[in-house]
Amino acid sequence: MTYSASAVGTPALSAIRVGVDAILDKFLDRKEEAAPGPEMAPLFTTLRRLLTSGKQLRAQLCVTGWHAGGGHKNASTARTAAAALELFQTFALIHDDVMDASDTRRGRPSAHRALSAAYTAGGGRRSRSDSHGLNAAVLLGDLALVWSDELLHEGIDPSLLARALPLVAAMRSELVYGQYLDLLSTDRLSGDVETALQVVRYKTAKYTVERPLHIGAALAGAGPDILEACSAFALPLGEAFQLRDDLLGVFGDPAETGKPVGDDLREGKATVLLALAVQRASGEQLRVLRMLVGRPDLAEEDILRVRSVVEATGARERVEEMISAQRSAAVAALERGPLHEAAAGALREIARMATERRA
């Protein structure tokens, strides 16, 4: 994705990735040189792969937030914060895949599967490979979390960082709250759309969109009016982003999403999509949903049956309408807000990318 800024100071979104990757490479090179020995290599290989295969949405939002907040000089501050957010996101993904027992991430083995394979390749017993992979992934996630904090503190002037640290702390708590709400609602098939949306707001809308924008803007010294404008854009967009994820989890192409289709159905995730299907289902349709959703051994034909019910109830169409409405609300917030046009233009492009994606 490329965005050509219309004003000096707001970079192309593609350029943000180059800058963030350079910071992460330098940081990890230094960490690997200081590591105890070559036995740590699988940790670094796995972490680098995850860091280079993502969309870097949070990084793009953080740097764009910096410019929206009036930051023009010393943009390395924003890029460093963005790189720290990428490490934090990688920690979250690693632990999320452990919690969900996901075998793949972005079309390749998830961290615990990659570390399990590295263990057996190095001579470890196959009977212990699964437990080793899970344990090593937890440690790697912890390491990414610790390094995220370290990068923030060593790479950003303390006087600037003090503006953002309360927002970083809030983001961390909100992510855990969202994950726990997700855990509580998993495998409890329900038509409660509002509860599903609450998970979305904490796990995605605030964590994925609002806080990265806030952190970048705060580092630039933005006032309450800019932060409020960021929230007005971010919260509806974050909901739309997760709703698109819900659709891709059921109707997406694994070749594009990088994950097996139907994982959300096997886990019994309480998505807005399924809540709407339950609300609208006939007696027979509801019987099918209750029989199949949440079964870990769900076969391809079972997934097709669930898809058919979701389609027939109009739940898929309704979610598409919700995505469109929330994207429109986010873009409308930019039109009436105080953000300069270059930053607003970048955010409009991010909104398009986040809601029209196929992966």
Question: What would you note in describing this structure?
Answer:
The chain has 359 residues and is an all-alpha fold. The two termini are 13 Å apart. The chain contains 16 helices and two strands. It has helices at residues 13-34, 41-52, 57-68, 76-100, 111-121, 129-155, 158-185, 193-219, 224-251, 254-257, 263-267, 272-280, 283-292, 300-312, 315-336, 341-356, and strands at 104-105, 108-109. A two-stranded antiparallel sheet has the order 1-2.
Q: Overall mean pLDDT score?
A: 94
Shape: flat
Task: Note poorly predicted spans.
Answer: 1-8
Number of helices: 16
Distance between the termini: 13 Å
Total strand segments: 2
Strand residue content:
under 5%
Helical residue percent?
Answer: over 70%
* Order of strands in the sheet with most strands: 1-2
Specify Rg, calculated over alpha carbons: 21 Å
H/E element order: HHHHEEHHHHHHHHHHHH
| Biggest sheet character | 2 strands, antiparallel
Question: Quick gist of this model?
Answer:
The protein is mainly α and 359 residues long.
